[in-house]
Amino acid sequence: MYPIANYETYQDSQVIFAEGSHGDWVYVVESGAVELSKNVNAKKIIIEILKPGDVFGELAFIANIPRTASARAVGETTLAIIDRSFLDHEYNKLSQHFQVILKTLALRLKKTTDALVETKK
């Protein structure tokens, strides 16, 4: 349990967020599972199925970009939702140099994921 988080439960197939949307939260799967997917040429490509303990939504937070994938619940799923104010407080404790490294890493991961998805067209 995360004392700084709110908790929400999603039903099977319920959308948590859509690719391209904006969000100020990072999620942790508490129970159930989450499917991350991208839409490429009107075809859904599953990137990963997340299980309890997995974190997602971090790219949008770190790189300050729209959501790079869609997330939906697989079965009944409970998520810890950590809001931007807490994350900003923790992130701002890092040196500017380390923040740049994290943002670069996040953007590189986005670029790599996009390239891999392109090969699955």
User: Percent of residues in beta strands?
Assistant: 35-45%
Please summarize the sheet with the most strands.
Answer: 6 strands, antiparallel
- Which residues form runs of ≥5 with pLDDT under 50? none
Into how many domains do the coordinates divide?
1
Topology as H/E string? EEEEEHEHH
Overall strand count = 6
Backbone CA Rg: 15 Å
CATH architecture: Sandwich
- The number of helical elements comes to 3
Write structural notes for this entry.
By secondary structure, this protein is of the alpha+beta class. It has one domain (6-119): Jelly Rolls. It contains three helices and six strands. The protein has helices spanning 58-63, 84-91, 96-119, and strands at 6-10, 15-17, 25-40, 43-50, 55-56, 70-83. Strands 1, 2, 3, 4, 5 and 6 form a six-stranded antiparallel β-sheet that branches. Strand 3 (25-40) and strand 4 (43-50) form a beta hairpin. It is flat. The mean pLDDT is 88.
Q: Which SSEs are present, and which pair or pack?
A:
Layout: E1 6-10, E2 15-17, E3 25-40, E4 43-50, E5 55-56, H1 58-63, E6 70-83, H2 84-91, H3 96-119
